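User: If only I could read backbone structure tokens as easily as an amino acid sequence. Underneath my words sits a plain record pairing an amino acid chain with its backbone structure tokens. This is the protein in question:
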Amino acid sequence: MTFLVLRRLAQTALILLGVAAITFLLLYALPADPARMIAGRSATAQTVANIRHELGLDQPLPVQFWTYLKGIVHGDLGRSYAQKTDVAALIAARIPATLLLMAAGILVEVVLGLTFGIIGALRRGGTIDRIVMMASFVGVSAPQFVVALLLLYMFAVTLGWFPMSGFGTPAHVVLPAATLGILGAGWYARMVRSAMIDVLNQDYVRTARAKGLSSVRIILRHALPNAMLPIIAMIGIDIGQFMGGVVVVEAVYGWPGIGQLAWQAIQQVDIPIIMGVTLVSALAIVLGNLIADIIAPLIDPRIRTR
């Protein structure tokens, strides 16, 4: 296990280097000029040139990238062009809100996905199974902003059960978490159904039934732990996706997380913030997968043996 962790940490460094290089090149290939955005439309060419020099944008691209990498090694993600603040401080201030939304969204999608996936597997080929699979297909296909607006209209505007936007109370997290959970639950339901169908046909499950064990015990004790393995891997991936991929949800609900920070940075061509959020998201994906690799052997000892 120690060797696995050390190897994955080494891979993490290489992945982050690759992500940083690709993102850096893509951002600087954009036709937008950060210096012109900061200076404004009425600024003179000399003013724009001075801003470019101040930001180091007049240096060759390899020099800019090397300077950025040296800053990362020392924990410096650069300074925001628009907000004139350290990017690390801006991201650190937004991470708690995103972590809260991420945890709530994953909880909702796992609970819904497990529930409907098990129901679909137990009622395979029946009407309930077809309804569950159709609902999961709709959930997977629905755009985030459509689901968010529908939930806002139904539960905030019409019924008035939850606030329209904001942050700070448990009521504020319900609709954003439900939006993320509904969209992700479809994937979980389909995967759990497939895994459960495979597990329920195994010899040890048939043996457990022959011994007279109850259906609930067979599902919870024998079938579900084995069907959970692909779910653990998906949760690890979702950790990274939710860290940087909730831009639309955070924008609709006014949620002060790093997704909203990234959206604002994209509008302002604030490259240091975009780079910082991208690297944090990539790091979260890698660490999420590492956590999944560590937890999986605890659930199924056969993985540790292999």
